[in-house]
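hey
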């Protein structure tokens, strides 16, 4: 997969002309681990290949320069050069490797699709489980965020609650103060009413005593002769009043 990405990127850059080739060389010269260039995304599935292992992009790169048979001629020339220069010597291990390669290729072509389908199924199950875990975590985190916001809202309302409680305590203290003031006022009023009632009683008793004393002295000062004269005078006044009333009635 990495070889296809490299070949594809090189093909795209080379198609841009000499400037693109120069940029490729500069990129190779000045590439560092701390480079901020974006990393190309790896494909999830492999691209087209020829003969099982050779990427199609290699042929596409060589076609403009060598033609259709260029890649095959290049491969045959490299193989002939390696064998003629005895860089690689054919021995019994070569035949063993060829047999093993044949068995491996047969196994891959025969059982590869089934194994790939089974691996894809396992991968999908793992991805689904990971997605479920992710969704569950997202749900729990969203609920935690909502709970946190609610707690923050409650914390903001707690200040209002404290203010209301302080107001209630102040009202209770004021009510107690006014009740005590009212109680003191009533006690003072009762005592003042008692003093007024006591003075009124003293004054009334003095008046009664004075009236009784005057009445007693007046009664004791009247003689029997004065009493008879007073009674006669009262009778005469009553008779005169009777005549006057009778005259008014007849008139």
């Amino acid at each position: 997969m990495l070889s296809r990405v490299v070949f594809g990127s090189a093909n795209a850059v080379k198609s841009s002309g000499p400037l693109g080739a120069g940029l490729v060389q500069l990129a190779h010269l000045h590439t560092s681990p701390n480079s901020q260039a974006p990393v190309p995304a790896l494909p999830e599935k492999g691209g087209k290949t020829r003969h099982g292992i050779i990427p199609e992009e290699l042929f596409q790169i060589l076609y403009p320069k060598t033609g259709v048979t260029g890649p095959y001629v290049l491969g045959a020339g490299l193989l002939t050069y390696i064998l003629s220069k005895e860089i690689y010597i054919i021995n019994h291990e070569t035949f063993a490797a060829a047999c093993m390669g044949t068995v491996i290729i047969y196994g891959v072509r025969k059982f590869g699709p089934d194994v790939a389908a089974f691996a894809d199924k396992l991968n999908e199950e793992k991805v689904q489980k990971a997605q479920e875990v992710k969704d569950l975590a997202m749900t729990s985190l969203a609920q935690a965020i909502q709970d946190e916001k609610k707690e923050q809202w409650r914390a903001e309302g707690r200040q209002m609650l404290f203010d209301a409680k302080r107001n209630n305590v102040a009202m209770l203290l004021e009510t107690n103060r006014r009740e005590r003031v009212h109680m003191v006022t009533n006690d003072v009023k009762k005592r003042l009413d008692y003093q007024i009632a006591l003075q009124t009683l003293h004054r009334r008793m003095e008046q009664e005593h004075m009236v009784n004393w005057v009445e007693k002295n007046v009664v004791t000062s009247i003689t029997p002769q004065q009493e008879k004269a007073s009674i006669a005078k009262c009778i005469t006044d009553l008779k005169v009043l009777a005549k006057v009333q009778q005259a008014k009635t007849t008139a």
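The longest strand covers residues 49-50. Helices lie at 2-14, 18-30, 56-66, 70-84, 92-221, 224-250.
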